[in-house]
Amino acid sequence: MRRGVAVGMGCALLLAGAAAAQAGGEHELTSDELRAEMAENRTLAAYVARNGEPDLAQSHFLADEPPWDDHEVTLYYLGARKEIGFARASILGSPENQMRRYVRPLTDEQVAALTSRAKARASQAPAEQTASLGPDERAERAAARAEDAAGRVEAAADSAEHAAERAEAIADKAESAFHRGLRK
C-alpha cells in the first residue's frame, strides 16, 4: 500500500513539475524569434556571432519583478555539451544590462533528449516544402517525428520511474526509522 502511494506521489510531483514548466512560458524559439531576441540583447548576439548558431534555443520565464526582464533565452550547443542562459536587467528603468547568466554542462540524458528535439525540429519543413514532397517522403518524415516523440516519451517515463524509485526509498527509510523509534 505504502509503495503504491509513494509511486503515485512521485508521478504526481513529476507531472506537476512538467505542468509548471509549461505554465512558466517555456518554449522553443524559431530562427526568426532568436533573431528578434538577438536584436534586443547584444551579449546574446555577440555570443552567437562568435560560436555559431545553437542547436536549440528556448525562452524561459525569469521574473515578474524588476530588475530582471520577464524572460531569459537559453542556447543549447549539443556538440560542446553546453547550456548558456542570457537575460537583461534594468538599470534606472531601462533594460540596458545584458548579460550571460550561466554556462552549464549538459549530461548524457539531457543531450539525448535535446538531440531528439533538434532532429524533430530539423525534420519539420515549412508547409510549402512539405507540399512539394511525395507521399513516401512525407510518410518517412512523419515516421521520424513519431520515433522522436516516442523517444521523448520513453525518456520521460524513465525519469518518472527513477523519481518513483527515489520516493519509494525515502518512504522505506522513513518507515524503518519509525519502527526503530518504536523499539527504543
Question: What is the topology?
Answer:
Blueprint: H1 2-23, E1 27-28, H2 31-40, H3 42-51, E2 56-61, E3 68-77, E4 82-91, E5 94-105, H4 108-123, H5 127-132, H6 135-183
Antiparallel strand pairs: 1-2, 2-3, 3-4, 4-5
Would you write up a description of this structure?
The chain is α+β, with helices and mostly antiparallel strands. The chain has two domains: 21-106; 107-184, no CATH class. It is built from six helices and five strands. Strands 1-2-3-4-5 form a five-stranded antiparallel beta sheet. A hairpin with a 4-residue loop joins strand 3 and strand 4 (82-91). The longest helix has 49 residues, at 135-183. Mean pLDDT is 79; it is low at 13-23.
Descriptive tags:
184 residues, 2 domains, 5-stranded antiparallel sheet
| Integer average pLDDT | 79
Uncertain parts: 13-23
Query: Widest sheet: strand order?
Result: 1-2-3-4-5
Please tell me what the overall shape is. flat
- Strand percentage lies at 15-25%
Number of strands: 5
Q: How would you spell out the order of helices and strands?
A: HEHHEEEEHHH
Overall tally of structural domains: 2
Instruction: Give the % helix.
Output: 55-70%
Secondary-structure content class: alpha+beta
Distance between the termini: 26 Å
Largest beta-sheet characterization: 5 strands, antiparallel
Number of contiguous helices:
6
* Global Rg: 22 Å
